[in-house]
């Protein structure tokens, strides 16, 4: 470990802290329909969209109308993206003459990007044409992120409103999220990335002659626009197979840190938006504090483990420790231009945010480091998470926490002025149980099925970790991979697609049901018996609930993978 490495992590955390309040306030004004500085620029476009689609954004929907709108919109998105990939050979901007994507892979990819997961069982530059990348992947990155933010805004309205039978209008929330939040930030981010050397062109690949006289094909394309939204949206799908370790996606240490800020910016800012909309910014800072503690523990553990080097090399008397003149450590699978700190920070941010972008190969991380990355995803996106889904997952844990506290003191649980009854608890548990059920159930099947075992590159605990990571990533809508699993088979494409659908929609629907139930309630005034949820006590209690629930659910599976692999390395028994 180096001072510069820790400084890089601290600077990143400070940048997120400084952005949270102004960006959170801006989000509050956007979703409240208040006048904003971009109204004159995007207002006519917004009005034209409503006229063409026949939408009245002021006509609010009940929770089930909101949910039906989301399901219909996403079903159409999956269908459209699937057809786009299948029709790729006859569409323009296919200079490499790429064939149609196989049916099972096309379905997996369509589900992946519509659900904001970005799992990729393919190499982007060798599978998708420019048309598929732009009209398919990039467009769905915008829409899936805007949908996630719309859901959490609907839930926040449930907490903030009293005696209301509606939670907003999905089509209006979706449109405003794209036009006033995602699009302006992505325009600025794209210009920055182009200035730093990220390509943005419709020209085909170019042939180059190497120094030894060989031929090399250099892929390029409209990379910067897709890179900006993949980071901001929590989508994470790479234009290139190497994702953000590719120099055309992430060329310098400066782009590395700015890309990390883009990944965390909206997820962190939504906590402040929550506080503003319910009338207590302290509640938002409490949630961000819990997220910050979990993030800090994860990044400190990752950096320490990776900087200490691989103990197998230590047994061979190889100097692999980090120093001022030798900033190495466990450099397997990492880019030299980012080093241990930049790679560990990116891996932590990627898995904590549910973004899934990578600038290093997670399969090459040490076993306990891999366990940390798995743990980040196994806590249901509560460490920042993707825009929208991270905050509503955290709010689900808040409901569980006040329910448990209420049982301890024999009082009806309340959170931010709303009573938590049996209906809210049932919906919360449904949302929290479906993800581990899909993860562990499908991992168990793949671990014994011949088609599942055929995809692993390593036998033993590491192979199990590869399978566990894949389904954890899919159900948690993350999309990153250990990269040692050959998932481009009918078995994995279909089962991972199922995990993505469960992880997205079987969480969203209960969340919207909770929003509708809470919105119909009256605000309950605080009394001496009310559990204060804006104090440090609740921060510690909420942290405990998250860690205990995650540990009880996933520790046996982790013990079969990264934990036992760690002890095998320590004992020198790993082949």
Could you outline the blueprint of secondary structure elements for this entry?
Blueprint: H1 3-31, H2 39-53, H3 63-86, H4 103-114, H5 124-127, H6 130-160, H7 170-195, E1 206-209, E2 215-218, H8 223-232, H9 253-278, H10 281-307, H11 311-314, H12 339-353, H13 367-378, H14 389-409, E3 414-415, E4 418-419, H15 422-448, H16 450-453, H17 461-475, H18 490-519, H19 536-571
Antiparallel strand pairs: 1-2, 3-4
Q: Mind explaining what this structure looks like?
A:
There is one protein chain. This protein is mainly α and 575 residues long. The chain has a domain of 233 residues. The protein is 64% helix and 2% strand. It contains 19 helices and four strands. The strands form two sheets. A two-stranded antiparallel sheet has the order 1-2. Strand 3 and strand 4 form a beta hairpin. Helix 3 runs antiparallel to helix 18, helix 10 packs parallel to helix 19 and helix 12 runs parallel beside helix 13. The mean pLDDT is 90.
List segments where confidence is low: pLDDT < 50 over at least 5 consecutive residues: none
With helices defined by DSSP (H or I, 4 residues minimum), what is the helix count?
A: 19
SS content category: mainly alpha
Rg on CA atoms, Å = 23 Å
Overall average residue pLDDT: 90
What is the helical fraction, as a range of percent? 55-70%
The order of strands across the largest sheet is 1-2
Q: Give the end-to-end Cα distance, rounded to a whole number of Å.
A: 28 Å
The total count of strands amounts to 4
**What coarse outline follows from CA principal-axis ratios?**
globular
Largest sheet: 2 strands, antiparallel
The fraction of residues assigned to DSSP E strands is under 5%
Order of helices and strands: HHHHHHHEEHHHHHHHEEHHHHH
């Amino acid at each position: 470990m180096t001072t510069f490495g820790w400084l890089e992590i601290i600077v990143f955390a400070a940048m997120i802290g400084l952005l949270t309040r102004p960006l959170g306030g801006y989000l509050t004004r956007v979703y409240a329909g208040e006048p904003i500085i971009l109204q004159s620029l995007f207002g006519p476009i917004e009005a034209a969209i409503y006229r063409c689609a026949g939408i009245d954004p002021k006509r609010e929907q009940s929770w089930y109308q909101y949910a039906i709108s989301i399901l219909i919109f996403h079903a159409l998105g999956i269908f459209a993206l699937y057809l786009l990939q299948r029709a790729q050979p006859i569409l323009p901007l296919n200079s490499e003459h790429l064939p149609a994507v196989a049916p099972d892979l096309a379905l997996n990819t369509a589900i992946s990007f519509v659900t904001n997961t970005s799992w990729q069982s393919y190499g982007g530059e060798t599978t998708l044409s420019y048309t598929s990348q732009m009209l398919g992947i990039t467009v769905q990155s915008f829409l899936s992120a805007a949908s996630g933010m719309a859901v959490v805004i609907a839930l926040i309205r449930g907490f903030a409103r009293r005696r209301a039978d509606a939670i907003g209008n999905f089509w209006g929330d979706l449109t405003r999220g794209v036009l006033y939040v995602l699009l302006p930030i992505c325009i600025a981010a794209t210009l920055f990335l182009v200035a730093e050397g990220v390509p943005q062109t419709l020209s085909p690949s170019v042939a180059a002659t190497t120094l030894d006289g060989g031929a090399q094909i250099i892929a390029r394309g409209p990379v910067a626009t897709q890179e900006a939204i993949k980071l901001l949206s929590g989508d994470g799908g790479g234009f290139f197979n190497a994702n953000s370790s590719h120099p055309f996606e992430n060329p310098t240490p400066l782009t590395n840190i700015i890309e990390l800020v883009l990944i965390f910016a909206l997820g962190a800012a939504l906590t402040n938006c929550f506080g503003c909309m319910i009338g207590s910014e302290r509640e938002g800072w409490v949630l961000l504090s819990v997220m910050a503690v979990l993030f800090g523990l994860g990044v400190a553990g990752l950096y320490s483990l990776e900087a200490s080097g691989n103990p197998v090399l230590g047994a061979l008397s190889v100097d692999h420790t980090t120093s001022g003149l030798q900033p190495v450590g466990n450099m397997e699978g990492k880019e030299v231009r980012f080093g241990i700190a930049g790679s560990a920070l990116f891996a932590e941010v990627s898995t904590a945010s549910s973004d899934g972008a990578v600038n290093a190969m997670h399969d090459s991380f040490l076993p306990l480091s891999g366990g940390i990355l798995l743990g980040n995803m196994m806590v249901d996106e509560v460490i920042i998470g993707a825009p929208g889904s991270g905050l509503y997952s955290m709010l689900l844990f808040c409901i569980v926490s006040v329910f448990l506290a209420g049982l301890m003191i024999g009082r009806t649980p309340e959170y931010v002025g709303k009573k938590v009854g049996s209906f809210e608890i049932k919906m919360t548990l449904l949302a929290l149980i479906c993800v581990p059920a899909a993860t562990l159930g499908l991992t168990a099947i793949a671990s014994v099925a011949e088609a599942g075992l055929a995809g692993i590159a390593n036998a033993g605990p590491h192979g199990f970790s590869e399978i566990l990571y894949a389904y954890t990533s899919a159900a948690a809508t993350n999309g990153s991979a250990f990269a040692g699993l050959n998932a481009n088979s009918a078995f994995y494409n279909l089962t991972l697609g199922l995990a993505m659908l469960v992880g997205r929609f079987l969480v969203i629907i209960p969340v919207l049901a909770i929003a509708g139930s809470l919105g119909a309630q009256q605000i309950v005034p605080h009394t001496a018996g009310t559990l204060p949820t804006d104090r440090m006590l609740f921060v510690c209690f909420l942290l405990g609930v998250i860690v205990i629930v995650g540990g009880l659910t996933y520790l046996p599976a982790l013990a079969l993978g990264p934990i036992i692999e760690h002890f095998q390395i320590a004992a020198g028994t790993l082949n």
